[in-house]
């Protein structure tokens, strides 16, 4: 999809490329589906399957992996061992087992409750649920691959893995509809790719993990992971609740329109997540805290210099872009998309990374609860004045206020000033510019 040299690839860059390739892959799949004439109903069913997988695993996969990263070199169970790169890691093996256990649990719950869901206005069994559950079961543990490469400082291998697996995933998803088959065959193709990713993961377990189960480490991992996964569940609930409401009250065609629009700026969340997760390992090394904060400020500024200008361009040309990239039927998705562009105001602030790296995960959890309460309260108020756009704006405001509270917490409780890890002048300049353009465009009320 593009070429990045394997040499001198940092952990941050490796994770960011993986996240970007993941986004591009599913974006191309969506574009191909619309261009070859797949019906909106079929696209809606495919998107619903991906939505079910995402809403079922995003929070616990995120929490477990984010807890694993700072524990890899500094857990109480195994200690801060020397010559880290030369030893086999029991942390990797036990994290893998934890992900497998969670995957099996969610898979089983899905099978038990499969006749008690309601989507697209109809009760009963969710369409394509069986293949969706298999995809969830197999794809969730495979997310560990890129992080094993990261902690072993083999980011060049991360790129090879990403290029190969996402290319195969793209082919597996788009070939069946091109040949005239139902989208269920696209999902089956994704399941096959998930099997390949798991085989790849098992080779890494064999090469780098110590096959030694430790209940003590699993408890330690879950102790740190629990507030993180609850925080991820709470903070990420807004977009998923919106999706669930749409799926219950509208048919599959409308759900497809909503899903195509309910996206943040391409690459921002991928770059931000990659930076945040990669920096978590820096807090477990002997390197000083100040050096780590400087890295966060420098690398976040690099993202700002590219993503804010791109946000402005997309804000100005969202309507013709959606019409050209997808089809005229999805032009209304642009109305939803332009509001989500404003999430960049909070995504490129990283006070939570500092707290997670320093293992102060309870503070992140408390602020996430506050974020949801603000979001719900503002949504109920703003919807009376601005319609559906008010609900979207409430989410943007809640995200931003949560980051402000975390910044204040770091300053008051930890003595870490915002200027130490935020390029304040550039951030203010870009944010004011984006906000001004958004207000002047006056998009109006979103109607799904």
Describe the structure.
- The chain is an all-alpha fold.
- It has two domains: 1-236, no CATH class; 263-448, no CATH class.
- The chain has 18 helices and two strands.
- It has a two-stranded antiparallel ribbon.
- Helix 2 runs antiparallel to helix 3 (90-112), helix 4 runs parallel beside helix 7 (184-208) and helix 12 (289-325) packs antiparallel against helix 13 (333-340).
- The two termini are 33 Å apart.
Strand order of the largest sheet: 1-2
Major sheet size, sense and barrel closure: 2 strands, antiparallel
Stretches where pLDDT is under 50 for at least 5 consecutive residues are 1-5, 444-448
What gross morphology would you assign?
globular
Number of helices: 18
What count of structural domains? 2
Compute the CA-based radius of gyration: 21 Å
SSE succession: HHHEEHHHHHHHHHHHHHHH
Mean pLDDT: 82
Euclidean distance between termini CA atoms: 33 Å
Question: What is the quaternary state of this protein?
Answer: single chain
How many E strands?
2
Beta-strand share of residues: under 5%
Structural class: mainly alpha
């Amino acid at each position: 999809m593009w070429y990045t040299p394997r040499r001198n690839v940092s952990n941050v860059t490796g994770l960011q490329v993986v996240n970007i390739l993941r986004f591009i892959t599913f974006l191309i799949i969506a574009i191909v589906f619309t261009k070859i004439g797949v019906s909106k109903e079929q696209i809606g069913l495919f998107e619903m399957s991906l939505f079910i997988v995402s809403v079922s695993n995003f929070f616990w996969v995120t929490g477990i992996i984010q807890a694993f990263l700072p524990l890899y070199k500094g857990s109480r169970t195994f200690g801060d061992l020397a010559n880290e790169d030369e030893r086999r890691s029991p942390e990797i093996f036990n994290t893998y087992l934890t992900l497998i256990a969670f995957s099996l649990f969610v898979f089983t719950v899905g099978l038990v409750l499969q006749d008690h869901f309601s989507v697209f206005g109809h009760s009963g069994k969710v369409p394509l649920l069986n293949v969706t559950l298999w995809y969830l079961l197999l794809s969730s543990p495979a997310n560990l691959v890129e992080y094993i490469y990261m902690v072993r400082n083999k980011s060049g291998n991360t790129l090879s893995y990403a290029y190969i697996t996402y290319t195969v995933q793209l082919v597996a998803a788009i070939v069946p509809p091109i040949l005239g088959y139902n989208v269920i065959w696209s999902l089956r193709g994704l399941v096959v790719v998930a099997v390949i990713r798991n085989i790849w993961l098992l080779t890494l377990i064999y090469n780098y993990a110590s096959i030694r189960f430790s209940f003590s480490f699993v408890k330690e991992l879950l102790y740190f992971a629990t507030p993180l996964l609850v925080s991820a569940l709470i903070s990420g609930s807004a977009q998923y609740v919106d999706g669930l409401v749409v799926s219950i009250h509208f048919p599959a065609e409308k759900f497809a329109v909503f899903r195509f629009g309910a996206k943040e700026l391409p690459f921002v969340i991928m770059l931000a997540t990659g930076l945040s997760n990669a920096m978590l390992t820096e807090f477990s090394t002997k390197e000083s805290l100040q050096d780590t904060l400087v890295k966060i400020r420098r690398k976040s500024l690099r993202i700002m210099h590219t993503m804010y200008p791109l946000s402005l361009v997309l804000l100005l040309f969202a309507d013709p872009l959606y019409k050209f990239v997808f089809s005229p039927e999805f032009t209304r998705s642009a109305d939803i998309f332009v509001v989500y562009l404003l999430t960049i105001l909070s995504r490129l602030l990283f006070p939570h990374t500092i707290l997670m790296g320093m293992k102060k995960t309870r503070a992140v959890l408390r602020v996430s609860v506050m974020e949801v309460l603000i979001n719900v309260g503002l949504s109920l108020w703003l919807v009376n004045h601005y319609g559906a756009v008010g609900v979207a704006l409430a989410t943007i405001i809640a995200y931003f206020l949560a980051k402000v509270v975390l910044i204040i917490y770091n300053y008051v409780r930890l003595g870490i000033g915002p200027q130490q890890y935020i390029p304040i002048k550039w951030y203010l300049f870009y944010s004011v510019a984006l906000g001004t353009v958004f207000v002047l465009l006056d998009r109006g009320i979103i109607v799904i």
